[in-house]
Each structure stands twice: as structure tokens, then as C-alpha cells.
Amino acid sequence: MDFIIQLILGALGGNGAGAAVKNASLGTVGNSVVGAVGGLVLGQILQRYMGMDAAAATATSSTIIQSVIGGAGGGAILTIIAGLIKNAMSKGSA
Question: Could you tell me the pTM of the whole model?
Fold first, then answer.
């Protein structure tokens, strides 16, 4: 269940970041894909370093909160980073 929450909220966070930071937007599909990956990665990192074992984790309020924060935050952060890198590379080659 945590994976699904992280993927969905990562995609939403990525699209939110793309809308907020126009020069970092990768388009709807790009924001969704990169956001989902970022949400999954940060969500898993938070679970590992916050003392949660993924195999033993149950759907408690703390694991859901970690998934929400990791999903949305990771999606937004990775989308902004990827968008800025894309823009920097396209300006450098033009």
C-alpha cells in the first residue's frame, strides 16, 4: 500500500511542482513519471531511515504520513531538479 501512495502522491507532487515552477516543468506526462519515481525513492528512504522495516511495516498512521510526505515531497523535488537540468542542457546546446 505504501508503494501505491508514494507513486500517486509523487505524480501529484511532480505536477504541482511543474505548475508552480514553470521553467522546471517537463509537461504533464514527464512531471507525472519523474514525480512518481521521486516519490517512491524518497518515500522508501524515509521508511528505511525512520526505523521502519518495509517487510514488517503495517499500515499505521506513521507509515502513511511518511508515505505522503515522501511521495509528494520527493515527486516535487525530483521534478524541479530534472526540469532545471533539462533547461540548462538545452540552453547549453543551443
Answer: 0.83
